[in-house]
Amino acid sequence: xxxxxxxxxxxxxxxxxxxxxxxxxxxxxxxxxxxxxxxxxxxxxxxxxxxxxxxxxxxxxxxxxxxxxxxxxxxxxxxxxxxxxxxxxxxxxxxxxxxxxxxxxxxxxxxxxxxxxxxxxxxxxxxx
Length: 128
Fold this sequence. Notes:
Blueprint: H1 4-12, E1 22-23, E2 27-31, E3 35-41, E4 50-55, E5 58-65, E6 82-89, E7 94-104, E8 107-114
């Protein structure tokens, strides 16, 4: 059963009671030895409608899902439309020159390389 706060948030995000201008897509952030990999679910969004920005270690993903023109009356809809936003502060320094983004099967894939100073490295122990 959903918590009272979650139920109110769901109601506030739908229909004529909508109070937020945007929503957040489902996202996974994975840290590897050399990079951060961010995957965001954005089904039906063409890549021209998505902006990916990196400022320092702040990542932002923004875009819009436009509603297609309808002829009939919509009786029920759970599909989200409108503007979406995702913002994250990555935990370590990143290399802004090592960023790649691709979109496949409704999943945005962003890989951000770690700065050399943020990568784990083995420290050799010397004698005496």
